[in-house]
């Protein structure tokens, strides 16, 4: 597994579990990890961002942590043209 795949795996583990501590550890290791999200697109379902998954799963603290560090994630759309807010609403997480 190369370094990009390892970072992608660690980020995926963090957003699937909603672990803010894991996210913070990733950011501590690489302050630019959230700027690299677009290069890790293959790791995310339907070209979604970690914020999309956090919204779907109701991981509010994780979503807040992401948006505090990278607010522009709020306007990212997945391959279905849905924002994280759209997904949160469809699951009743509002």
Summarize the structure in short.
ANK repeats lie at residues 46-78. The chain is mainly alpha-helical and 94 residues long.
How far is the N terminus from the C terminus? 38 Å
Strand content: under 5%
What gross morphology would you assign?
A: globular
Whole-number radius of gyration? 12 Å
Secondary structure tally, helices:
5
In this structure, how is the largest beta sheet organized?
none
Structural class: mainly alpha
The overall average pLDDT, rounded, is 87
Listing every helix as H and every strand as E from the N terminus to the C terminus, the arrangement reads: HHHHH
Fraction of residues in helix = 40-55%
Spans of at least 5 consecutive residues whose pLDDT stays below 50 are: none
> Number of DSSP strands?
0
List the helices and strands and how they pair.
Elements: H1 3-17, H2 20-29, H3 50-57, H4 60-69, H5 84-90
Helix pairs in contact: 1-2, 1-3, 3-4, 3-5
ANK repeats: 46-78
Keywords: ANK repeat
Mind explaining what this structure looks like?
Helix 1 packs parallel to helix 3 and helix 3 packs parallel to helix 5 (84-90). By secondary structure, the protein is mostly helical. Helices cover 53% and strands 0% of the residues. It has helices at residues 3-17, 20-29, 50-57, 60-69, 84-90. It starts with a helix and ends with a helix. It is globular, with a radius of gyration of 12 Å. The model has no long low-confidence stretch (mean pLDDT 87). It contains five helices and no strands.
